[in-house]
Amino acid sequence: MEIVLLAIRSLLAVVFGVAGVAKLVDRDGSRKAMIDFGVPVPVAGIAAVILPMVEIAIAFALLFVGTSWPGAIACSLLLAVFCAGMVYQLARGNAPDCHCFGQLHSEPVSVLSLCRNLALFAAAVWLVIRGPKAQGLDLANVDSSVLIAAFGAAIICLLIAILLRQSQHSTTQSAIMRRIEMVELMAGEGAAVDRQHAGNPNDGLPIGAFVPDMLLEDSEGNTVSTRSVASAGTPAIMFFVSPTCTPCKALVPRMNEWAAEFSGRLSTVFISSGSVAENSASFGDHDGNMLLRQKGREFADSMNARWTPSAVFVDRNGRIASHVAAGDTAIAGLVESVRNLDLNSEHLHIHDAERAHGSNPVEIGAKLPVFTVTAIDGREIASSRISRPTLIAFWSPTCPHCGNMAEEFRKWDEQRGPDDPDLLVFADGEAELIRSLGMTSPVILDKDYAIAEKLGMHGTPSAILVDERGRFASEIAIGAPNIWALLDNKD
After folding, report:
1. Could you tell me which residues come within 8 angstroms of residue 137 by beta carbon, excluding any fewer than 6 positions away?
2. Could you tell me which of 94, 28, 86 has the C-alpha nearest to residue 356?
3. Pairing state of beta strands 310-314 and 290-294?
4. Which of 161, 295, 307, 443 could disulfide-link to 201, CB 3.0 to 4.6 Å?
5. pLDDT tens-digit profile of 241-284?
6. Is residue 334 located within the same domain as residue 415?
7. Beta partners for 224?
């Protein structure tokens, strides 16, 4: 029994010691994990330093009999917090990255990772129950054979960690090689490819934004409005392709199969460039799918779909319902997600767990957090009283980007029509500066960003749409172009 207790203490000490050191080495990753688990942004940076130091202190305490019992108490309390956080995230359908061992090993929260933590928690609780005088062998009194066995076990654990890390490197390297091969295919057997303005392949308009309204030509030479196509009464998948894109040509058979599968339930639209002849040579007769041609890349760029092939899912009302899927694998994943959707649901969109707990921690369709505030003109505003579509904007008088759009935003507020959403502005700074905005809609002084943090806002200017039932109807739109996209403003 004494050796078993020593083994449990040693196991917990190794786990907490490695976890603490790994987190300290990767503080940026630890901070991000803290935010993903709901720790307020201002506190996350400090917590990302304090937590690993506490873990290392617990590891040292568990090694020695004299300090093992208080170490076991601290260990069990910390593991209880970890388990509670995991249960909460899993219950909400979320899977943030646990970042348990920094860059050595990190994985999304799952039932398996919860079970692992519960097992460690049970071991720590057993040490607590044993009491301060029954913590097993003291390392100072352990003979050499036991130490050799323990050292061997530690070496095995280290080798397993190295193998796991090597496996992660191999997976990453395979993904990089796949991207290189894709670029080479795009380049046409080694020719140079101009990608300086391509941006991140996963960029895109926020979910809930309107599809930009532009006039393109179909394969018959007729002028077609992209808005009319996107809001034709059925959802749509827009495939962004090019007649000079080799991976696009390779994906055409699958895109045609998907179009046939979804026929009658949603539309499939090819957005391309070049002449009718070039597109016919590359994509055939499109098997009845609509093909719209840009003069250059004006529509694709307005959607931030800057890579080919890529795809975006759009709801029946002409609003963006997914992030950009770039490349054949991502597009196939998007299509699989569409298969699993109820296409008649009210807030139709494809949930992205990674983004929902990163830069856009908002669950579309969820109720607004409860708040009651007083605007600077004395009006009382309560989340429970929202009964019309409303744009909630976050502003700062000292933010240069806010200043650049202030005049046009004020004009939009003055000229809003009956079909436009209501406006509610939260701002920081001095009340006089906020009054100088000249908004006719209520403006709330949000000191210390108390409401902003509740709604997941971490920058200005930013905004989000809320429906007439007080539920989130869009992602957070950051920056003027994305805010105007939420409002269907052509600026």
Report:
1. 2, 3, 5, 6, 65, 146
2. 94
3. unpaired
4. 307
5. 998 888 888 888 888 888 888 888 888 899 998 888 888 888 87
6. no
7. 216
| Interacting residues of 485 by C-beta distance below 8 A, sequence separation 6+ | 205, 206, 209, 210, 212, 320, 477
Is the pLDDT confidence value at 472 over 50? yes
Whether 271 contacts 294, CB under 8 Å: yes
Q: The tokens of 237 are what? A: 């998948």
Domain count, the chain: 3
**Range of the structural domain that residue 68 is part of:** 2-142
In the block, tokens 């020695």 appear at 64
SS3 at position 116: helix
Shared-domain flag, residues 341 and 418: no
Confidence band, pLDDT 50/70/90 cuts, at residue 173: low
Residue 326 CA, distance from chain mean position: 16
Closest among 143, 118, 120 to 2, alpha carbons compared:
143
Residue with tokens 């429970």: 384
388 neighbors 467 (Cβ within 8 angstroms): no
Our CA dihedral for 228, 231, 233, 235, rounded to 10 degrees, sits at 130
- The answer to whether 35 and 17 have CB atoms below 8 angstroms apart is no
Q: Which CATH number goes with the domain that contains 252?
A: 3.40.30.10
Helix/strand/coil for 106: coil
Q: Are residues 450 and 337 in the same domain?
A: no
